[in-house]
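User: structure tokens for this one?
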Amino acid sequence: MRPKTPGADVVIFTALGKESAAVLDHLEGPLTEHEVRGALFELGTFTGDHATWRVACHETGEGSAAAAALVERAVAEFEPHHIFFVGIAGGLKDVKLCDVVAARHIYDYERGKDEEEGFQARFTTHLSTFALVQRAQSVARAETWRDRIRAPLPDRTPRAYVKPLAAGSKVVASERSATARLLARHCGDALAVEMEGHGFLQAAYVNAGVGALVVRGISDLLSDKGEDNDDVWQPAASRCAAAFTFEVLSKLSAPPGRRQGLGGSVGELRRTRHTGGQATIGFGPEHTAVVIGGDGSIERWDLKSGEAVPGAPGGAELRLGHQAIASPSRHSVAIARPSSLELVHFEGMTGEHRRRSVPLGRDEFLVTSGGTVLATHDGHRLAVRDFGDGRVLREVPCARGLAASAMSADGGVVALATSNKVHVHRLGADPVPLDIRNRLEILKPGCALSVAPSGKYVACATFRELRVWRTADRSIVLHRQFSRSESVDALGAQGMRLICTDEGKVLWLRRGLLSEVTHRPEIRHLEQAGRYQDFALHPDGNLLAAVSGTGLVRTWEWNG
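Assistant:
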């Protein structure tokens, strides 16, 4: 059994590291990696005017053949709606450094027949997708795409064009070269020359239904090949091409067939240890699911095959409160024992493991969230800890009357809630108090808190309402008042879990029922198989897992 590939609506290809850096600068993190038969893709999200896009970026290296092969591989793996090739080009005519050319079509200038009389050109041409060309024309006219350029340009105000490009394997370094004369004679309307675009569009052509566009920033001119082109103009031109591309993407609407919520079932797994008590579920690296039983026993599964992976036995009782957390970035689990924090580190997918014990204070509890780090709190301070040895990396003072706590995957954003306030602590910034209303101000149960893995959003639910704030500016992106029956469902913190995604969406486990909270009048319950004890969202944001009291572990695609 193999889980569905981490979702990617868009794949952006580049040839050089400078080009990739310019693209990745527009993606919201945390970035994740996905390998496709050795080819490494980096995935993040981009929020446009009409949709939030999951974007994969891959650096192909130079050359048309490599670009074509990797497009085939990516389209088969991700099934994206749009693909782009973004990077730099050499200007042939009518353009200046840092100008952008979106390819209406691309000439393969090397195709032809070499005869005794000389080379006879037989150029082929491939078109970018009509809808993307139309959108590129609109973006070029508006010129607001320049606002997306991530860093100042060296005394430039770039312009954008939707015109032909020429592509071939040669680096054209002189306007007097034989290739330059060939281009002038047969590709007179091409504004620039590059290397990968034709192979890219040819691969897109044979994959029906995938939109494709090539976007190039001008990093040098045939008449001006200065020594500073590589160091100065290549990064600057890459930033311009990336800015234009993401402005195009921001104006696109999500395809009508794009599903929301739960997709197909990825698998059902059966626990073998019946330990009683509250179970905790999480995702580990290398496509693994992890369940920690009520006695601290650890079970693991390989989601690619559905087979069990060696875990570890339990035995001793656990501390009250949230009792365990699995790391998504290392094969490690943290378990709260009555007087200590037990860290269990596995040697990859094997059963070999080592345990490390860190003393905990009498009133010190494990925080429900984290990732690359973990945290504990005792009502006076929250301690962000290293997942390897448990040492304290950072301390955050707790507000009086602490009801709930949560943090981002890297611990950079910490949220602490009382019955009517949420205090947000960000590294290098003053704490920010946010208001939240409750039925009775003295009530702590029913207050659930979550921080998005990237720290971009904070969500809090009380007996009365749910609010989601954007941490950068404290703006409210979701506010929902609960009905009386919904308030009753929120009674009691036992078995409650709130997860806020990097897109600001909210998933909530209440009384064993898994649901999504939106602006809609009714809270939407998701697929159930009994009452769930805990659930988790994969770091890639594309997979949900839940564990029930009957020992069943379920995983689904998540397209929220």
